[in-house]
UniProtKB/TrEMBL annotation:
Keywords: Methyltransferase, S-adenosyl-L-methionine, Transferase. Residues 337-349 have a biased composition (Acidic residues). Gene3D superfamilies: 3.40.1280.30. Residues 1-86, 312-349 are annotated as: Disordered. This is tRNA (guanine(9)-N(1))-methyltransferase. One of its GO terms (molecular function) is tRNA binding. Residues 86-314 form the SAM-dependent MTase TRM10-type domain. The lineage of its organism: Eukaryota, Sar, Alveolata, Perkinsozoa, Perkinsea. The keyword Repeat does not apply. It comes from the Eukaryota. It comes from Perkinsus marinus (strain ATCC 50983 / TXsc). CDD domains: SPOUT_Trm10-like.
Amino acid sequence: MVPCCGVWGGRALDSESVKEDVPPFDAPVESNRQRKRNKRREQKKEKWLRKKSSHGGASSSPTEGSADQAACDGGRSTTQNPLRRERNAMMRADTEAKALMSPLILFDCEFRAEMHTRENTSLAQQLMFCYGANKKCEWPLRLVTACPQDGDMHRVGHIPLPAPLAMVVPYQHLKKNSGLSQWTCFTLDHRPLRTICADQQQQQQRQVVYLTADSEDTMWSFEPDTVYIIGGLVDKNRHKNITKDKAAELGLRTARLPLGEVVDMGDHSKVLTVNHVLEIMAHLWQHQRSKKSVTEEDWREVCLECLPGRKKKKVGDANSDGAGSSPQTKRQKVSTTDEDDGEGEASPV
């Protein structure tokens, strides 16, 4: 059989040469985008190889290096890790040294039996917010969470929770943070609050003040040798005077923050969440460290900065009760007050 042949561009072609020159029908065609992507990939690999040869890395590919870094924090140069650890240790020591000159804030988490599961979860979240706010301060406070694991809790007319269930919240929620043991200026104390207060009063010679919104005494400044207790309670204002009654039971002095004296909160409750109380105290401690004293204007500035928006009465509402107010403005004010009265807060301070 005579093979097929022809002429193309002055050159004789047979069937075999045609098979070699023409690509297969199903061969993938590389687009411009794919070619650019492959080119960038090759350039990135060459750049990584040059960097590896200059630093003497041990991993064989960029993928392996990133995997090693994510797995055991060893993808980078080994000479940097000791320096980083040393720098972090120095920063931690400096932060803890500053915290020794600050007041001690004690979170009372013995109200677990008085809260539902979601409220205990909310309390754990607020404690994490407290740590984050305190970590950003130049002069951090010392935070201690009284979270007994043996079921020793403050109960007000509720059926006591079994000890295994009492240990679950909020301590177990905090344990979900892998770096909890490395938190700076934050300590978990599993002793009962009564034992902690007795130790601070007798051995450490410190005064203990329980912060509660129901107190008649107002606190205008902080003392470095004083322990301030914040009630860890998220109860939607179900239990009235619960923290004040507990302070009286423990024989502790009470005090409240001067919120109503420095900020016009209108008809809103003076009860704040745990993290808002801590933020106010942390900011004021920065003022006291820099100015050696805290003025009423400092309190006003900090409260306006830290209080939630719904708690702050707008400047235009100061004269809203006058004769010049329109009926529509008054109706809006009444509806806003009704909505806010339905909200619940935590940590009566």
